[in-house]
Amino acid sequence: xxxxxxxxxxxxxxxxxxxxxxxxxxxxxxxxxxxxxxxxxxxxxxxxxxxxxxxxxxxxxxxxxxxxxxxxxxxxxxxxxxxxxxxxxxxxxxxxxxxxxxxxxxxxxxxxxxxxxxxxxxxxxxxxxxxxxxxxxxxxxxxxxxxxxxxxxxxxxxxxxxxxxxxxxxxxxxxxxxxxxxxxxxxxxxxxxxxxxxxxxxxxxxxxxxxxxxxxxxxxxxxxxxxxxxxxxxxxxxxxxxxxxxxxxxxxxxxx
Amino acid sequence: xxxxxxxxxxxxxxxxxxxxxxxxxxxxxxxxxxxxxxxxxxxxxxxxxxxxxxxxxxxxxxxxxxxxxxxxxxxxxxxxxxxxxxxxxxxxxxxxxxxxxxxxxxxxxxxxxxxxxxxxxxxxxxxxxxxxxxxxxxxxxxxxxxxxxxxxxxxxxxxxxxxxxxxxxxxxxxxxxxxxxxxxxxxxxxxxxxxxxxxxxxxxxxxxxxxxxxxxxxxxxxxxxxxxxxxxxxxxxxxxxxxxxxxxxxxxxxxxxxxxxxxxxxxxxxxxxxxxxxxxxxxxxxxxxxxxxxxxxxxxxxxxxxxxxxxx
Lengths: 256, 312
Ligand SMILES: [Zn+2]
Known about the structure:
The complex is a heterodimer of chains A (256) and B (312).
Chain A: E1 4-6, E2 13-15, H1 16-21, H2 37-44, E3 51-52, H3 68-79, E4 85-92, E5 95-102, H4 113-129, E6 133-139, H5 147-167, E7 171-179, H6 181-184, E8 193-196, H7 207-214, H8 225-230, E9 236-237, H9 243-253
Parallel strand pairs in A: 5-6, 6-7, 7-8, 8-9
Antiparallel strand pairs in A: 1-2, 3-4, 4-5
Chain B: H1 3-17, H2 32-39, H3 47-54, E1 57-60, E2 73-80, E3 83-90, H4 96-101, H5 109-124, E4 129-135, H6 142-146, H7 149-161, E5 167-176, H8 177-181, E6 188-192, E7 196-198, H9 202-209, H10 216-222, H11 227-232, E8 238-240, H12 251-269, H13 274-287, H14 299-308
Parallel strand pairs in B: 3-4, 4-5, 5-6, 5-7, 6-8
Antiparallel strand pairs in B: 1-2, 2-3
Zinc ion (ZN) binds next to loops of chain A.
């Protein structure tokens, strides 16, 4: 008998084989299960083409925050990731690209100095070598343990986008669930083209904070990717199965 | 082209940076929590008071040309010591009616877009930009999200990072998160002695990381959000002194130091070529919190700037 997975959204039982074939999207209600970084890389890149770069960038504890290093260690064990972002060179259906994949599994995908540095260096490398950059976002916002240094990553990453713009090198953003806070208020909203997965939470302030301000229930579908598209902040919602083809099309059409 | 010149200039500017403290605060140090409370006092001087005290003349300008006019973001053109400047700043309001009108200094997207419109206008007419930050953060609400507060702040960060006129920023009260940074990317950054600047409020930090909102005071002390902390960490260029009781006790004193700082910085920054100014700013932004080993630090940026040459 084959294994089944229960969808947390519609509670239907999904056959495991079908589940994997659909890239972890529920066939009944289109609920998108979270992909691991490696699964995202496999989804987008040509087989064996991804080579990790900027591995010399290390996390530090700039405020000497007590317990932060232990927390990082725990997160590494739990998530099997070094940090909340992986950067690399790759090919997408034959086209060269630089790819950053953020992961919510590592400290909620929060942006500290390492995340800001890797994303910035990737964008600058793209600007320098005329290589398109793709960033798959997933983040709860700033890495609070790094205090003001985490805030400064917003300026740093956004300044790199300005340089990409000036060099005429395209930046493509793929918003995935969830993308909020300082990541939304920096590079995530600065792509030449902004794609999103269906049903992802995309916003600046968290829903609970907004609910606290307005004192009533938030409207249905508030801050979803569909909401962002209707309000003009997302270009297209793309199915996982079409993501590599779409990115390849965008790369080919942005060669100037 | 200006690569060699750039290195010289950076060294020179770094040297100048160390001497920008107009007056060493000579009073006994306040705790971070005391600064947090002082920075939020209702009678603390705001951008309007400082404009009155610093400018010979000032004309406010309204609207983002897209949606509306956000009263929480003041903008306009002033004259300081015979020099035209664009001034942008958060308004918190000085009485309850005003507080409500401006959401206690929390701007909607139209506020950030108005700031950007005025910054680009300043750039076209070669006017330096002075910004005054005093906000707990951007407004968290339905309209704010519907109109893209994330996009509005992000675009400001991107545009201000390469704008070709000098940008000098003073954090005069609360500098809260992305909402503060949205008008805070520039060449020079100062904190008033009792102002604070942080990624989240101490209350937020306490409730999220310490799981206890009542520990805000303890949080403030470990967050390194005071002027002195930020100067030690080389986030800011200098501290503007206040009298012992705080800026509200003698706004003229603090305003005169702000004015002196502006004049001195503009003399320096306006003498640079536009390319040199932007290159210096980009290197500064790139360096903050860098965890790349020193040897390769800013290496790729330097090459990108070389590639762009005069096109920056
Ligand atoms: Zn389902």
